[in-house]
């Protein structure tokens, strides 16, 4: 009966080229969660507007807004706003634990840590130093033409090398060995962070041909309907 149950809606503020926003689109897709997309026009600096920064003080994407309507007309809906892609991934995995968990079970703390280890190679070692905003700041303080791009390329190559070596190490772990993806046969948080970063790397002219484990994972990910539905694809 209408109005007799709690209704929750998800609103994702996103920018298509953003690898951080792509992580959330992938998570929504694998968990089969419906949401409303609100594209932010970053080239026109919409993300720096007062209205958007009221939602996300960092002036970045993604931003997740969760609206919950409770039964009864007199009850005001609640609004929960969350920024930072890793926080959003953790939140979605907590509230939709039964819909394609992105981390191993809680009774596998070592394996959960292994997944997060790979996530942080992407999110801490690679992404911040190749972010377009950082690039603008670097160019703003001077330097030779193309210097930031060369720097970003080195950062990406070093990060992919570390990721590949960790994959090699994890092959010795029975829990992960022989798997199709970063941490076994199930797509995890590591994979939803890896694929968008590979897409970003292509823009810097960095391919993944030299890292066979990563290359195989990406090829298998791109075959999945959930990835196609999320609109995340590594361009050749």
UniProtKB/TrEMBL annotation:
Molecular function GO terms recorded: glutathione transferase activity; maleylacetoacetate isomerase activity
Lineage: Eukaryota, Fungi, Dikarya, Ascomycota, Pezizomycotina
Gene Ontology cellular component terms for the protein in this record: mitochondrion
GO biological process, one term: L-phenylalanine catabolic process
Domain GST C-terminal, residue spans: 108-236
InterPro entries referenced in this protein's UniProt entry, alphabetically: Glutathione-S-Trfase_C-like, Glutathione-S-Trfase_C_sf, Glutathione_S-Trfase, Glutathione_S-Trfase_N, GST_Zeta, Thioredoxin-like_sf
Family that this chain belongs to: Belongs to the GST superfamily. Zeta family.
UniProt cross-references to PROSITE patterns, sorted A to Z: GST_CTER, GST_NTER
Parts forming coiled coils: none
Name the record gives this protein: Maleylacetoacetate isomerase
GST N-terminal domain: residues covered: 8-100
Alphabetically ordered keywords of this record: Isomerase
NCBIfam families, per database record: maiA (TIGR01262)
């Amino acid at each position: 009966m209408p109005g007799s149950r709690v209704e929750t809606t998800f609103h994702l503020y996103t920018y298509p080229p953003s690898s951080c926003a792509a992580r959330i689109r992938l998570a929504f897709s694998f968990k089969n969660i419906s949401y409303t997309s609100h594209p932010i026009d970053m080239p026109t600096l919409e993300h720096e507007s007062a209205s958007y920064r009221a939602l996300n003080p960092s002036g970045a994407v993604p931003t997740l807004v969760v609206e919950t309507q409770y039964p009864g007309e007199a009850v005001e809906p609640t609004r929960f706003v969350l920024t930072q892609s890793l926080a959003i991934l953790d939140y979605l995995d907590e509230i939709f634990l039964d819909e394609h968990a992105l981390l191993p079970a809680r009774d596998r703390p070592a394996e959960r840590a292994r997944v997060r280890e790979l996530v942080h190679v992407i999110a801490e070692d690679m992404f911040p130093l190749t972010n377009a905003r950082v690039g603008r700041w670097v160019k703003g303080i001077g330097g030779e033409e193309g210097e930031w791009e060369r720097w970003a390329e080195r950062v990406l190559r070093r990060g992919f090398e570390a990721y590949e070596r960790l994959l090699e190490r994890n092959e010795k772990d029975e829990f992960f060995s022989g798997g199709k993806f970063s941490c076994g046969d199930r797509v995890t948080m590591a994979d939803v962070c890896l694929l968008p970063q590979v897409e970003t790397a292509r823009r810097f002219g960095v391919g993944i041909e030299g890292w066979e484990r990563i290359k195989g994972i990406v090829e298998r990910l791109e075959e999945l309907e959930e990835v196609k539905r999320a609109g995340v694809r590594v361009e050749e």
